[in-house]
Amino acid sequence: VQLQASGGGSVEPGGTLRLTCTAFGSFVSINDLGWYRQAPGKQRELVATANLYGRPKYADAAKGRFTISRDNDKNTLFLQMNSLKSEDTATYYCAKARKRVIYGMDNWGKGTQVTVSS
Length: 118
Description:
Strand content: over 45%
Number of helices: 0
Number of strands: 11
Largest sheet: 7 strands, mixed
Helix content: under 10%
Structural class: mainly beta
Distance between the termini: 37 Å
Shape: globular
């Protein structure tokens, strides 16, 4: 399966972006999916995950501002990001789990850049 992320860009603090990740080559409806991010000089970190039923889990930094969702019919994962802060600046990656997140992520997209700056 190939994961293709899009929707990144440059916004001012307080702005919004909607990231989209589409899976090609295989259906991912039975897999947990997630968004991760990596800022320059920092380790990659979890942003949010959605299980096969769409039940979300968020990192503390994302709670109350980001919403993860999925459309299994379209093999697509979304991340709605509101009230963006400069510290949200990073490359965002979507990933597919080996069925469940606890078993690890086994497939990663190439990433989409998000820059929050005034």
